[in-house]
């Protein structure tokens, strides 16, 4: 086994039960410099502001107020596994109204709920916005996203997830990318390290470990004993392309069967040059515009017809196309055509 290609088990699997939980809340950011919600367009901002003030003992029922320094936001966070009461977690704050910027604002105490509806954390603090905005009478410049920001350690855990890790009798390891060969190798490495058959592969994505046969005193000790073992994973041949940026990412196991490739560019050009025609002096009539169009088709020579021999790796094909001056976007079209012809032996993912 090549050690340079080995990966730790902890980087390949997730331990069943050891997971984070998503949190979400609805709150209010105050202290903005006139960049908050327009309350006429965001009535929910006025509603939550009224509720907060009434909880603080300020009666604003029936009052008309239109401040521009507040914004309604959605607060999101992630509760890590084994978080305890009093731990602090990071949260992300995003405007949901027509606020222009959250820069310099402060998030008022916001409960964060999990999928079960219970409150697990409370967020509050100064928002660090991820952009900047400058505006004048006739121009406006925005860099980044000033309507979203983060609060590092901005939420405090108020409730723990009810999960007793010490009561487990078996560990279930779930592969992030299920593969039968990788699962079999993980099973073999664990059993070899322990010295007895404690791990069993259930399917391509699951390995179960008998904690009693590991000899570890607790599930946590068993995880420590196996998570740093090195395994050489097997991955499916895959080609990933991003048509928006022209990015191509490929695996080393991609292969191409014998196929002939030809590529050329076809350009359609239409030019409009309308002509205004006027009547003679002192003559009756009116000025009209006569359309004039010029259309043409230009076909570039392309790369000609090239044969790709069987067993050629994708990296060799890409190197050859680069030598011919094919652009990344044309290369994506060529790869899609090779895949459609059944000659590209890999999973083709288009983003």
Automatic annotation (TrEMBL):
Keyword Signal applies: yes
InterPro entries assigned: Flag_FlgI (IPR001782)
Entry coiled-coil feature ranges: none
Keywords (A to Z) from UniProt: Bacterial flagellum, Cell projection, Cilium, Flagellum, Periplasm, Signal
Subcellular location: Bacterial flagellum basal body
Main location: other
Pfam families reported for this sequence: FlgI
Quaternary structure and interacting proteins, as annotated: The basal body constitutes a major portion of the flagellar organelle and consists of four rings (L,P,S, and M) mounted on a central rod.
Family to which the UniProt record says this protein belongs: Belongs to the FlgI family.
Chain's role: Assembles around the rod to form the L-ring and probably protects the motor/basal body from shearing forces during rotation.
Protein name in UniProt: Flagellar P-ring protein
């Amino acid at each position: 086994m090549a050690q340079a290609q080995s990966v730790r088990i902890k980087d390949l699997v997730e331990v069943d039960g050891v997971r984070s939980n998503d949190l979400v809340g609805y709150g209010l950011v105050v202290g903005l410099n006139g960049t908050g919600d327009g309350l006429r367009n965001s009535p929910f901002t006025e509603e939550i502001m009224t509720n907060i003030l009434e909880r603080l003992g300020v009666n604003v029922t029936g009052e008309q107020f239109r401040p521009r320094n507040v914004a309604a936001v959605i607060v999101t966070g992630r509760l890590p596994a084994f978080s305890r009461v009093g731990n602090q977690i990071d949260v992300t704050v995003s405007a949901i109204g027509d606020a222009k910027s959250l820069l310099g604002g402060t998030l008022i105490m916001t409960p964060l709920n999990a999928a079960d509806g219970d409150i697990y954390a409370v967020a509050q603090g100064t928002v660090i916005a991820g952009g900047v905005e400058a505006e004048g009478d006739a121009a406006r410049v925005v860099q980044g996203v000033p309507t979203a920001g983060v609060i590092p350690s901005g939420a405090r855990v108020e409730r723990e997830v009810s999960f007793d890790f010490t009561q487990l009798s078996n560990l279930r390891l779930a592969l992030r990318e299920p593969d039968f060969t990788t699962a079999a190798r993980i099973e073999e490495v664990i059993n070899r390290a322990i010295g007895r058959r404690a791990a069993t592969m259930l399917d391509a994505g699951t390995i179960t470990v008998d904690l009693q046969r590991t000899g570890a005193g607790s599930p946590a000790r068993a995880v420590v004993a196996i998570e740093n073992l090195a395994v050489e994973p097997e991955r499916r041949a895959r080609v990933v392309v991003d048509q928006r940026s022209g990015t191509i990412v490929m695996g080393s196991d991609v292969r191409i069967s014998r196929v002939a490739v030809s590529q050329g560019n076809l350009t359609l050009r239409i030019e409009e040059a309308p002509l205004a025609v006027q009547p003679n002096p002192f003559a009756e009539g009116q000025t009209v515009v006569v359309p004039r169009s010029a259309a043409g088709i230009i076909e570039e020579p392309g790369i000609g017809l090239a044969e790709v021999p069987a067993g050629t790796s994708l990296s060799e094909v890409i190197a050859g196309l680069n030598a011919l001056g094919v652009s990344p976007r044309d290369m994506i079209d060529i790869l899609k055509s090779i895949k459609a012809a059944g000659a590209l032996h890999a999973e083709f993912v288009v983003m």
